[in-house]
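Q: Start with the shorter request: fold the first protein.
A: Done. Sequence, then structure:
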Amino acid sequence: MPLLILIRHGQSIWNAANLFTGWENVGLSEKGILEAKNAAEELTNINFDSVFTSELIRAQKTAEIIIEGNSQTKPTSIISDLRLNERHYGDLQGMNKDDARKEFGEEQVHIWRRSFDIPPPNGESLKMTAERTLPCFDELIMPELKLNKNVLVSAHGNSLRSIVMKLEQIDEDSIVKLEIPTGVPRIYSFENEGFILQE
C-alpha cells in the first residue's frame, strides 16, 4: 500500500526569531537543518516516487535534505507548487509575535492565528489557505497515491493543517488546535480510498 508522508519544514531562521513568516522566503536555521537530517534518517528506508513542496525555500531545502539522506532510489518527480505555500500572514509578516500582541492585543492576535476563517489584515485565514491547498492535493498528489506511489509533501504548518483536516476528517474548531511540529514526519498509509495515520 502506498504511503503519504507530510512534513513541516525544519525550523526557519524566522521561527527561531519568533517572527511571523508566511510567504517570506527565509532559510532554515541550524536547528532546522538538524531536524531535516533527523527526518531523513527516520525515512531513509522509504522509497519516494514523487515529492511535492511549496515554492518557499525552507520547504524545498527540507525535502532536499530528506532526499539526499534517503538510501533508496531517488524520486522520479519533484514538483513545487505555490498552492502548498504557508498561509499568508498579510500585515503581520516580518513582525515579532510579542510586538504584534502589544500592538493589536493578545486576544486579537490569538484570533488571527487560531480562528478558522478570520484572516489577519491583508492576509489569509486557514479556510482561505485550505481553498488553495486542497485542490492542489486533489489534482497533483491523490493521482500519484492512486497509482500506488509513495509521496512526500514538504510544506508548512497551515498548508499541512488544511490537508490533515481533510485526511483525518477533523472539524473546524479542532483543526485550529492541532500543532504540527517542525521537521517531524506524519506518515499515512493509503488504503481503500482512505488514510490511516501510522502511530
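Q: Next, the second protein, separately.
A: Sequence, then structure:
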Amino acid sequence: NAIFQCPNLAGVFIPASVTNIGVGPMIDCKSLTTISVSPANSIYTNVNQVLFNKSLTSLIEFPGGVGGSYTIPASVTNVGQAFIGNSLTAISVNPANTYFTNLAGVLFDKSKTFLVSYPGSAAGSYAVPTNATTIVGGAFEYSAGVTTVSIGTNVSSIGTFAFYDCPNLTAISVNATNAFYS
C-alpha cells in the first residue's frame, strides 16, 4: 500500500530501477488513470495503463480512475489486491484463462467458489452465488456502487476488509441456513 488513498494522483511512472513492488501498491487512488513503466524495467510492464509483471502472469494494479469494463488476459494467474478501489462496472476474463472466470461481471476463481473482486462502480444489490464458499479479503473494499449484499448458504469464509469502506452499502443479509454466518 505504498501509495494509498491519494484522491488527486492521476499518474505513476515506474522507472527501470524499481525491482520490487509490494501488494496493492496504489489502493483506492480514484483519479489514477495512467500507470507507465520504463521499457528498460526488467521486472514490470504496463499494458493499456495496467501494471503487470514482465511475464504478464501477475496483474499487480488496475488504475482506480479507469471505469467501464476490463477483461483479464488469458496469461494472468494472480490478481492479488489489484482491483481494490476500482471504478469498473464489470470485470470479465478471457475464456482461455485457466485460473479465473467471471459471473455477471464479478471476478471469481475458475471453480467459482472464491469471489475475488467486485467491480467498484457496479450499482445496486448483489447476491453471492450459492456455489461460492469464500469471499476473498478486500473483494468489495471501496466499492461505491454496491448497496446490499446477500450471502448464500455455502459461504464459510469472509476475508479481512471484504466489505471495508463501501459508502452506499446499507445491508448485508445471510441465508438462514448458512452454518457460519448470520
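Q: Describe the second briefly.
A: The longest strand covers residues 87-93. The mean pLDDT is 95.
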